[in-house]
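help with this.
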Amino acid sequence: MDKNAPIGVFDSGIGGLTVAREIMRQLPEERLIYFGDTARLPYGSKSRETVIRFSRQIIRFLRTMEVKAIVIACNTATSYALDEVRKDEDIPIIGVINAGARAAVSATKNGKIGVIGTNGTIDSGTYEEVLREMKPSVEVFGKACPLFVPLVEEGLLHDTVTDEIASRYLSVLKEKYIDTLVLGCTHYPLIRSTIARIMGNEVHLVNPAYETAVQLKTLLKSMEMNRDEGQELLQSEKYQFFVSDMAEKFRGFAISILPDEVKETVKINIEEY
Protein backbone atom coordinates (compact mmCIF):
# COMPACT_ATOMS: atom_id res chain seq x y z
CA MET A 1 0.00 0.00 0.00
CA ASP A 2 1.24 3.48 -0.91
CA LYS A 3 1.96 5.47 2.25
CA ASN A 4 1.62 8.67 0.23
CA ALA A 5 -1.95 7.84 -0.80
CA PRO A 6 -4.75 9.99 0.60
CA ILE A 7 -7.04 9.32 3.56
CA GLY A 8 -10.73 8.92 2.72
CA VAL A 9 -13.35 10.53 4.95
CA PHE A 10 -17.11 10.34 4.47
CA ASP A 11 -20.31 11.55 6.08
CA SER A 12 -23.96 12.00 5.20
CA GLY A 13 -23.34 15.70 4.63
CA ILE A 14 -21.33 18.50 6.18
CA GLY A 15 -20.98 17.24 9.75
CA GLY A 16 -17.98 15.11 8.88
CA LEU A 17 -16.09 18.26 8.01
CA THR A 18 -15.50 18.64 11.75
CA VAL A 19 -13.63 15.32 11.60
CA ALA A 20 -11.77 16.37 8.44
CA ARG A 21 -10.74 19.61 10.17
CA GLU A 22 -9.27 17.72 13.12
CA ILE A 23 -7.41 15.32 10.80
CA MET A 24 -5.92 18.28 8.95
CA ARG A 25 -4.74 19.73 12.27
CA GLN A 26 -3.35 16.47 13.66
CA LEU A 27 -1.87 15.22 10.37
CA PRO A 28 -0.93 18.31 8.34
CA GLU A 29 1.28 16.34 5.93
CA GLU A 30 -1.51 14.01 4.85
CA ARG A 31 -3.69 14.20 1.76
CA LEU A 32 -7.44 13.89 2.27
CA ILE A 33 -10.46 13.07 0.12
CA TYR A 34 -13.84 13.96 1.59
CA PHE A 35 -17.23 12.73 0.41
CA GLY A 36 -20.52 14.17 1.66
CA ASP A 37 -23.67 12.27 0.74
CA THR A 38 -25.76 15.42 0.44
CA ALA A 39 -28.33 13.85 -1.89
CA ARG A 40 -29.38 11.25 0.67
CA LEU A 41 -29.02 12.93 4.05
CA PRO A 42 -29.90 12.61 6.85
CA TYR A 43 -28.74 9.10 7.73
CA GLY A 44 -30.17 9.24 11.25
CA SER A 45 -33.69 8.45 10.07
CA LYS A 46 -32.67 5.68 7.63
CA SER A 47 -32.78 1.94 8.28
CA ARG A 48 -29.67 -0.06 9.12
CA GLU A 49 -29.79 -1.85 5.76
CA THR A 50 -29.99 1.42 3.84
CA VAL A 51 -27.10 3.01 5.72
CA ILE A 52 -24.94 -0.09 5.10
CA ARG A 53 -25.76 0.04 1.38
CA PHE A 54 -24.93 3.74 1.17
CA SER A 55 -21.67 3.20 3.08
CA ARG A 56 -20.56 0.41 0.76
CA GLN A 57 -21.21 2.60 -2.30
CA ILE A 58 -19.16 5.43 -0.84
CA ILE A 59 -16.32 3.11 0.12
CA ARG A 60 -16.26 1.74 -3.44
CA PHE A 61 -15.94 5.32 -4.71
CA LEU A 62 -13.15 6.12 -2.25
CA ARG A 63 -11.31 2.95 -3.27
CA THR A 64 -11.26 4.22 -6.87
CA MET A 65 -9.32 7.20 -5.47
CA GLU A 66 -6.78 4.71 -4.04
CA VAL A 67 -7.12 5.82 -0.42
CA LYS A 68 -4.92 4.11 2.18
CA ALA A 69 -7.42 4.35 5.06
CA ILE A 70 -11.04 5.37 5.54
CA VAL A 71 -12.68 7.30 8.36
CA ILE A 72 -16.45 6.97 8.71
CA ALA A 73 -17.10 10.49 9.98
CA CYS A 74 -20.73 9.77 10.79
CA ASN A 75 -21.98 8.30 14.04
CA THR A 76 -25.02 6.67 12.44
CA ALA A 77 -22.95 5.00 9.72
CA THR A 78 -20.39 3.93 12.33
CA SER A 79 -23.17 2.40 14.44
CA TYR A 80 -24.80 0.53 11.59
CA ALA A 81 -22.11 -0.14 9.02
CA LEU A 82 -18.58 -0.18 10.47
CA ASP A 83 -18.46 -3.87 11.42
CA GLU A 84 -20.07 -4.92 8.13
CA VAL A 85 -17.84 -2.94 5.77
CA ARG A 86 -14.67 -3.94 7.60
CA LYS A 87 -15.33 -7.54 6.59
CA ASP A 88 -15.06 -6.63 2.92
CA GLU A 89 -12.02 -4.36 2.92
CA ASP A 90 -8.26 -4.81 3.24
CA ILE A 91 -7.43 -1.27 4.36
CA PRO A 92 -7.96 0.25 7.82
CA ILE A 93 -11.47 1.62 8.41
CA ILE A 94 -12.28 3.45 11.63
CA GLY A 95 -15.39 5.16 12.94
CA VAL A 96 -16.07 7.94 15.39
CA ILE A 97 -17.64 6.03 18.27
CA ASN A 98 -14.81 4.10 19.97
CA ALA A 99 -12.51 7.10 20.27
CA GLY A 100 -15.28 9.28 21.71
CA ALA A 101 -16.36 6.58 24.16
CA ARG A 102 -12.80 6.10 25.38
CA ALA A 103 -12.43 9.82 26.04
CA ALA A 104 -15.76 9.91 27.92
CA VAL A 105 -14.78 7.03 30.19
CA SER A 106 -11.51 8.79 30.98
CA ALA A 107 -13.24 12.09 31.70
CA THR A 108 -16.16 11.07 33.93
CA LYS A 109 -15.80 11.40 37.68
CA ASN A 110 -19.26 10.35 38.84
CA GLY A 111 -19.82 7.63 36.23
CA LYS A 112 -22.85 9.35 34.67
CA ILE A 113 -22.34 9.86 30.92
CA GLY A 114 -24.80 11.44 28.51
CA VAL A 115 -24.82 10.79 24.77
CA ILE A 116 -26.68 12.94 22.24
CA GLY A 117 -27.07 11.88 18.63
CA THR A 118 -29.45 11.13 15.80
CA ASN A 119 -32.34 8.70 16.21
CA GLY A 120 -30.29 6.04 14.44
CA THR A 121 -27.27 6.41 16.71
CA ILE A 122 -29.27 6.47 19.93
CA ASP A 123 -31.66 3.68 18.91
CA SER A 124 -28.74 1.43 17.93
CA GLY A 125 -27.44 1.50 21.52
CA THR A 126 -23.88 1.31 20.20
CA TYR A 127 -22.49 4.05 22.45
CA GLU A 128 -24.03 2.49 25.54
CA GLU A 129 -22.66 -0.93 24.57
CA VAL A 130 -19.14 0.37 23.91
CA LEU A 131 -19.08 2.52 27.06
CA ARG A 132 -20.19 -0.39 29.26
CA GLU A 133 -17.58 -2.66 27.69
CA MET A 134 -14.91 -0.12 28.61
CA LYS A 135 -16.27 0.54 32.11
CA PRO A 136 -19.18 -1.67 33.27
CA SER A 137 -20.04 0.59 36.21
CA VAL A 138 -20.96 3.66 34.12
CA GLU A 139 -24.53 4.87 33.75
CA VAL A 140 -25.31 5.95 30.21
CA PHE A 141 -28.16 8.27 29.30
CA GLY A 142 -28.91 8.66 25.59
CA LYS A 143 -30.98 11.43 24.07
CA ALA A 144 -31.87 11.71 20.39
CA CYS A 145 -31.68 15.29 19.10
CA PRO A 146 -32.90 14.91 15.49
CA LEU A 147 -33.51 18.60 14.83
CA PHE A 148 -29.88 19.56 15.48
CA VAL A 149 -28.75 18.27 12.08
CA PRO A 150 -31.18 20.31 9.93
CA LEU A 151 -30.53 23.38 12.08
CA VAL A 152 -26.80 23.05 11.46
CA GLU A 153 -27.30 22.28 7.77
CA GLU A 154 -29.35 25.48 7.47
CA GLY A 155 -26.59 27.47 9.12
CA LEU A 156 -28.61 28.35 12.24
CA LEU A 157 -25.60 27.90 14.53
CA HIS A 158 -26.28 30.95 16.70
CA ASP A 159 -30.03 31.39 16.59
CA THR A 160 -32.79 31.64 19.18
CA VAL A 161 -34.56 28.67 17.55
CA THR A 162 -31.48 26.50 18.09
CA ASP A 163 -31.20 27.75 21.69
CA GLU A 164 -34.83 26.85 22.42
CA ILE A 165 -34.66 23.37 20.88
CA ALA A 166 -31.34 22.63 22.59
CA SER A 167 -32.80 23.66 25.96
CA ARG A 168 -35.71 21.26 25.48
CA TYR A 169 -33.54 18.34 24.42
CA LEU A 170 -30.84 18.80 27.05
CA SER A 171 -33.12 19.41 30.04
CA VAL A 172 -33.64 15.64 30.32
CA LEU A 173 -29.89 15.06 30.66
CA LYS A 174 -29.43 17.90 33.15
CA GLU A 175 -31.89 16.10 35.43
CA LYS A 176 -29.64 13.01 35.40
CA TYR A 177 -26.68 14.95 36.87
CA ILE A 178 -24.28 13.73 34.19
CA ASP A 179 -20.75 15.11 34.35
CA THR A 180 -19.73 14.10 30.80
CA LEU A 181 -21.60 14.53 27.52
CA VAL A 182 -20.60 12.90 24.24
CA LEU A 183 -21.44 14.92 21.13
CA GLY A 184 -22.51 11.79 19.29
CA CYS A 185 -23.03 13.35 15.87
CA THR A 186 -20.35 15.10 13.85
CA HIS A 187 -22.67 18.07 13.26
CA TYR A 188 -22.91 18.84 16.96
CA PRO A 189 -19.45 20.38 17.51
CA LEU A 190 -20.67 23.21 15.29
CA ILE A 191 -23.16 24.18 18.04
CA ARG A 192 -20.82 23.26 20.88
CA SER A 193 -20.96 26.72 22.43
CA THR A 194 -24.76 26.51 22.69
CA ILE A 195 -24.64 23.03 24.21
CA ALA A 196 -21.89 24.04 26.64
CA ARG A 197 -23.81 27.12 27.81
CA ILE A 198 -26.97 25.09 28.50
CA MET A 199 -25.19 22.18 30.22
CA GLY A 200 -22.95 24.40 32.35
CA ASN A 201 -19.27 24.39 33.26
CA GLU A 202 -19.56 21.28 35.43
CA VAL A 203 -20.28 19.06 32.39
CA HIS A 204 -17.31 18.00 30.25
CA LEU A 205 -18.11 17.84 26.52
CA VAL A 206 -16.44 15.11 24.47
CA ASN A 207 -15.87 15.82 20.79
CA PRO A 208 -15.37 12.46 19.00
CA ALA A 209 -14.09 14.31 15.92
CA TYR A 210 -10.92 15.32 17.77
CA GLU A 211 -10.53 11.92 19.42
CA THR A 212 -10.93 10.13 16.07
CA ALA A 213 -8.19 12.23 14.47
CA VAL A 214 -5.86 11.30 17.35
CA GLN A 215 -6.77 7.61 16.89
CA LEU A 216 -6.04 7.84 13.15
CA LYS A 217 -2.69 9.48 13.83
CA THR A 218 -1.73 6.68 16.20
CA LEU A 219 -2.93 4.01 13.76
CA LEU A 220 -0.96 5.34 10.79
CA LYS A 221 2.17 5.66 12.91
CA SER A 222 1.86 2.08 14.17
CA MET A 223 1.49 0.82 10.60
CA GLU A 224 4.34 3.04 9.36
CA MET A 225 1.89 4.55 6.88
CA ASN A 226 2.50 8.24 7.52
CA ARG A 227 3.02 10.24 4.36
CA ASP A 228 6.63 11.12 3.52
CA GLU A 229 7.37 14.66 4.62
CA GLY A 230 8.71 17.20 2.18
CA GLN A 231 6.74 16.16 -0.89
CA GLU A 232 5.21 19.32 -2.29
CA LEU A 233 1.61 19.22 -3.46
CA LEU A 234 -0.75 21.71 -5.03
CA GLN A 235 -3.50 22.69 -2.57
CA SER A 236 -6.08 21.27 -4.99
CA GLU A 237 -4.31 17.91 -4.82
CA LYS A 238 -3.91 17.86 -1.06
CA TYR A 239 -7.57 18.24 -0.08
CA GLN A 240 -10.35 17.14 -2.44
CA PHE A 241 -14.09 17.37 -1.81
CA PHE A 242 -16.89 15.39 -3.46
CA VAL A 243 -20.65 15.36 -2.89
CA SER A 244 -23.68 13.57 -4.28
CA ASP A 245 -25.71 16.80 -4.70
CA MET A 246 -25.79 20.55 -4.01
CA ALA A 247 -22.09 21.14 -4.64
CA GLU A 248 -22.23 24.92 -4.40
CA LYS A 249 -24.31 24.95 -1.21
CA PHE A 250 -21.93 22.43 0.33
CA ARG A 251 -18.89 24.48 -0.67
CA GLY A 252 -20.40 27.64 0.79
CA PHE A 253 -20.89 25.98 4.15
CA ALA A 254 -17.60 24.08 4.02
CA ILE A 255 -15.70 27.34 3.59
CA SER A 256 -17.13 28.54 6.92
CA ILE A 257 -15.57 25.49 8.61
CA LEU A 258 -12.38 25.21 6.53
CA PRO A 259 -11.85 28.75 5.19
CA ASP A 260 -8.64 28.13 3.25
CA GLU A 261 -8.97 24.50 2.23
CA VAL A 262 -12.06 24.12 0.03
CA LYS A 263 -11.05 25.23 -3.45
CA GLU A 264 -13.55 23.13 -5.40
CA THR A 265 -16.40 20.71 -4.74
CA VAL A 266 -17.20 18.06 -7.33
CA LYS A 267 -20.60 16.41 -7.67
CA ILE A 268 -20.61 12.71 -8.54
CA ASN A 269 -23.34 10.12 -9.09
CA ILE A 270 -22.77 7.88 -6.09
CA GLU A 271 -25.44 5.43 -7.29
CA GLU A 272 -22.99 4.29 -9.99
CA TYR A 273 -20.76 2.70 -7.35
The two ends are 22 Å apart (CA to CA). The beta strands are 7-11, 32-36, 69-72, 93-94, 112-117, 139-144, 180-183, 204-206, 239-243, 265-267. The chain has two domains: 7-95+210-272, 97-208.
